[in-house]
Amino acid sequence: MESRHNRLRLALLVLATLLTVVGGESAWGQGIDVSKFQGTINWRKVKATGKVKFAYIKATEGTSIQDPMYKRNIDSARAAGILVGSYHLYSKKTTAYQQFGNFKKVVQKSKQDLVPVLDIEERYNKDLYMARVDKLLELMEKEYGKKPLIYTSEKVYWDHFSGKKYKNYHIFIANYVRYPSTRFTLWQHSQTGRIKGISGYVDLNKFHKNHGINEIKLPKKSNK
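Above: the chain's sequence. Below: its structure in token form.
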């Protein structure tokens, strides 16, 4: 029985290792993204799980919407020792300058560890206004010192971001059904994750096996 038990433990250990390599989680483990919909998060409990190494936190949307939990989330997550970045939900209804003004007003460079994210939802795919998207990406890069991540669905990626023009951008792909068919740096693989310290569901993210956290860290000189 003991020998059989040891063999089983070894097999499970090998399987767990293979899953980690295939999934590309690397030593940085799991990431999450949150907004007001997660309510009040106990970030110390989140950190204590050992599963969450980084978090993207919703800051703004469009011209005037600011997530009411942003300040608490960014401060508490950093205090708990979790690397953080901020994201802006794109709106096709207002200019890049207006949207960037909203984001900059809320997101302090000194409190950012990771590059910002421009969140482009699939519902905007028909009339995305790419000149506006490009300008917003440009403004975010100039302010925070590194190209933002582009978060979107596979459909929007293939329709708008698969060309050479965006080859130097890191892509953050959402697909809850299967492994992405696009290139990607980060993969939002679940929207029904469970993490101690967060009541209800939370989005789960992990790196492609060929990418890692250092690629999306902000340069130190930008954190003044």
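The chain has one domain: 26-222.
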